[in-house]
């Protein structure tokens, strides 16, 4: 029995496997997608990332100031100008074919249409290494079992 062509095998797989196969063949780079969103939209972003088959990420709570107006709050009878807003930061290392689906998922999950929805940054990632297996770059950001 002859071995099937790689393209035929990949075409029968799920979309993530097809994209990964394409990335491995082309020697694609790895990018770090950083999304900073409203805390109340974090669960919506998680759901959107899951639907886009983006699996590995880090999440942290951060404070920052962007285009939104300064808030004024009262604390123990004193008016306080709040300069920093609470945000959630997603850091997602992906191969090139997953950059746009990741951006789309972040936008779809985080968008309210109001000032302060957040920002997305895409930066080149020089190197990624999976500690357990020493796999590097695209293989390191691929979910286990793919």
Task: Describe, in plain words, how this protein is organized in 3D.
There is one protein chain. The protein is α+β, with helices and mostly antiparallel strands. It has a single domain, classed as 2-Layer Sandwich (Alpha-Beta Plaits). Helix content is 27%, strand content 30%. It contains 4 helices and 6 strands, in the order ααβαββββαβ. A 4-stranded antiparallel sheet has the order 2-5-1-6, with helices on one face. Strands 3-4 form a two-stranded antiparallel ribbon. The longest helix has 12 residues, at 15-26. It is elongated.
SSE blueprint:
Elements: H1 6-11, H2 15-26, E1 30-37, H3 42-51, E2 58-64, E3 71-75, E4 78-82, E5 85-95, H4 99-110, E6 118-125
Tally of contiguous helical segments: 4
Shape: elongated
CATH topology: Alpha-Beta Plaits
Q: Helix share of residues?
A: 25-40%
Structure characteristics:
146 residues; disordered N terminus; 30% strand; 6 strands; two-stranded antiparallel ribbon; 4 helices; four-stranded antiparallel β-sheet; Alpha-Beta Plaits; single chain
């Amino acid at each position: 029995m002859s071995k099937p062509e790689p393209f035929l095998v990949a075409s029968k797989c799920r979309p993530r496997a097809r994209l990964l196969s394409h990335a491995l063949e082309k020697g694609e780079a790895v990018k770090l997608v950083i999304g900073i969103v409203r805390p109340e939209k974090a669960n919506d972003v998680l759901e959107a990332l899951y639907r886009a088959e983006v699996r590995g990420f880090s999440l942290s709570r951060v404070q920052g100031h962007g285009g939104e107006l300064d808030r004024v709050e009262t604390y123990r009878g004193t008016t306080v100008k709040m300069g920093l807003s609470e945000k959630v930061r997603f850091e997602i290392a992906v191969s090139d074919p997953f950059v746009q689906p990741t951006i789309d998922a972040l936008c779809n999950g985080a968008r309210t249409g109001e000032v302060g929805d957040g920002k997305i940054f895409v930066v080149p990632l020089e190197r990624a290494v999976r500690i357990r297996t020493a796999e590097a770059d695209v293989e390191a950001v691929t979910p286990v079992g793919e």
